């Protein structure tokens, strides 16, 4: 935190994440409460939010490796602010429709693809290698705090302003985030493309690096499955709370804040957990031991069962955050700098590309089976996602290879 440039990224991320939590509350509630969307329409909207990772995730990584990451971050914030402001304007004018929400979600997703790939690739340029895990922990901690404060704030804003107008706050946070990124002093040199470089060749190189590495392949499989079932849960959770249990937006925000408290504790606890268990065991154990608590969500009813379900989901989030910080730091330290953008984009393509599929599956199943059966399917599926990492060498590896450790990286990079 004494590093000026890291502080700017830290504050930018904190403000941006607060806005994201408001939009995560407000955008589906616009569909459910303002436009009376059904289960399939809510699932399709959630799919649109992450579809960009599936369709442009791979070329985005190659492009980010050709550009200065600071500029990509600023552009990502500005694009998302401009697109999102159209929702309250359309609601005020009386012409807001579900197709517009789909388009807004898709375009915000495009901005998020470039922002996230650039942000994860930029951190190793702002801190020393021995500070990468600490940097990720700090950023994940502030993100987790926003996961606690954001839903409650978002729920109150939706209750006071209505869902469409609450999105104005989100636009402001993106603009503030861009201002802090502008304050970062350190400038990257403009990457020089290698002779004969082509977009297709660079994309293939990133794919080969990730898929050809046994450890990266295992974490990609685990995270992809977790995001698939997590997307199913997210879609049905909104409908369960808002329509089945008929909770007010403020109460929904408090519920999600209780759930997100687990993420804060996970971000704080990750360093001592890794020190105690080692990197590899932490990765699989964090997912394996926390997932069963997600079985409490389908049982949620008004009253004490609602808050028991929130506590169970908080434990699941605790494990997810511990897993995510550990595997993300490993990926960043393993990857040569010239491949960071493509590695992150390939991973995002693989692990976020499953989310729109999960959202649509949830919407279709929700129409035929109902909300709670889909939540049961998702909760049981989450209990199995740790298997790819458990069945890999990660199970016993207390110290994982880095880009500087030649022999382990070479030995494990064969498919």
Automatic annotation (TrEMBL):
<keyword id="KW-1133">Transmembrane helix</keyword>
<feature type="transmembrane region" description="Helical">
    <location>
        <begin position="251"/>
        <end position="270"/>
    </location>
</feature>
<feature type="transmembrane region" description="Helical">
    <location>
        <begin position="42"/>
        <end position="64"/>
    </location>
</feature>
<feature type="transmembrane region" description="Helical">
    <location>
        <begin position="101"/>
        <end position="123"/>
    </location>
</feature>
<feature type="transmembrane region" description="Helical">
    <location>
        <begin position="373"/>
        <end position="391"/>
    </location>
</feature>
<dbReference type="InterPro" id="IPR036259">
    <property type="entry name" value="MFS_trans_sf"/>
</dbReference>
<feature type="transmembrane region" description="Helical">
    <location>
        <begin position="71"/>
        <end position="95"/>
    </location>
</feature>
<feature type="transmembrane region" description="Helical">
    <location>
        <begin position="12"/>
        <end position="36"/>
    </location>
</feature>
<keyword id="KW-1003">Cell membrane</keyword>
<feature type="transmembrane region" description="Helical">
    <location>
        <begin position="224"/>
        <end position="245"/>
    </location>
</feature>
<keyword id="KW-0472">Membrane</keyword>
<keyword id="KW-0812">Transmembrane</keyword>
<feature type="transmembrane region" description="Helical">
    <location>
        <begin position="167"/>
        <end position="184"/>
    </location>
</feature>
<feature type="transmembrane region" description="Helical">
    <location>
        <begin position="347"/>
        <end position="367"/>
    </location>
</feature>
<protein>
    <submittedName>
        <fullName>MFS transporter</fullName>
    </submittedName>
</protein>
<dbReference type="Pfam" id="PF05977">
    <property type="entry name" value="MFS_3"/>
</dbReference>
<dbReference type="InterPro" id="IPR022324">
    <property type="entry name" value="Bacilysin_exporter_BacE_put"/>
</dbReference>
<feature type="transmembrane region" description="Helical">
    <location>
        <begin position="306"/>
        <end position="326"/>
    </location>
</feature>
<feature type="transmembrane region" description="Helical">
    <location>
        <begin position="282"/>
        <end position="300"/>
    </location>
</feature>
<dbReference type="InterPro" id="IPR010290">
    <property type="entry name" value="TM_effector"/>
</dbReference>
<keyword id="KW-0813">Transport</keyword>
């Amino acid at each position: 935190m004494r590093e000026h440039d890291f502080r700017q990224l830290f504050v930018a991320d904190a403000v941006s994440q607060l806005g994201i939590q408001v939009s995560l509350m407000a955008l589906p509630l616009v569909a459910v409460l303002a436009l009376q969307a059904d289960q399939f329409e809510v699932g399709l909207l959630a799919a649109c939010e992450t579809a960009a990772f599936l369709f442009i995730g791979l070329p985005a990584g190659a492009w980010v490796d050709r550009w200065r990451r600071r500029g990509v971050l600023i552009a990502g914030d500005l694009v998302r602010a401009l697109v999102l402001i159209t929702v309250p304007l359309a609601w005020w004018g009386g012409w807001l429709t579900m197709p517009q929400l789909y388009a807004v979600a898709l375009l915000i997703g495009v901005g998020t693809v470039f922002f996230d790939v650039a942000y994860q690739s930029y951190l190793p340029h702002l801190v020393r290698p021995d500070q990468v895990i600490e940097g990720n922990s700090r950023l994940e901690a502030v993100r987790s705090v926003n996961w606690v404060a954001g839903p409650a704030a978002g729920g109150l804003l939706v209750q006071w302003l209505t869902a469409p107008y609450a999105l104005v706050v989100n636009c402001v946070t993106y603009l503030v985030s861009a201002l802090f990124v502008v304050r970062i002093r350190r400038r990257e040199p403009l990457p020089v493309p290698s002779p004969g470089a082509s977009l297709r060749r660079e994309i293939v190189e990133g794919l080969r690096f990730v898929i050809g590495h046994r450890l990266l392949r295992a974490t990609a499989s685990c995270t992809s499955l977790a995001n698939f079932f997590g997307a199913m849960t997210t879609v049905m959770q909104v409908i369960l709370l808002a329509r089945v249990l008929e909770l007010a937006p403020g109460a929904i925000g408090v519920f999600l804040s209780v759930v997100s408290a687990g993420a804060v504790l996970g971000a704080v606890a990750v360093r001592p957990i890794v020190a105690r268990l080692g990197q590899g065991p932490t990765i699989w154990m964090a997912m394996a031991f926390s997932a069963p608590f997600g079985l409490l969500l389908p049982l949620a009813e008004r009253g004490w069962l609602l808050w028991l379900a929130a506590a169970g989901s908080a434990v699941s989030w605790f494990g997810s955050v511990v897993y995510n910080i550990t595997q993300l730091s490993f990926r960043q330290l393993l990857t040569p700098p010239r491949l960071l953008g493509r590695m992150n984009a390939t991973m995002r393509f693989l692990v976020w590309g499953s989310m729109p599929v999960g959202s649509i599956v949830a919407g279709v199943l929700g129409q035929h089976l109902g909300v709670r059966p889909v939540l049961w399917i998702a909760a049981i599926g989450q209990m199995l996602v740790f298997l790819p990492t458990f069945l890999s060498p990660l199970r016993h590896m207390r110290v994982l290879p880095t880009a500087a450790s030649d022999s382990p990286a070479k030995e494990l990079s064969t498919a």
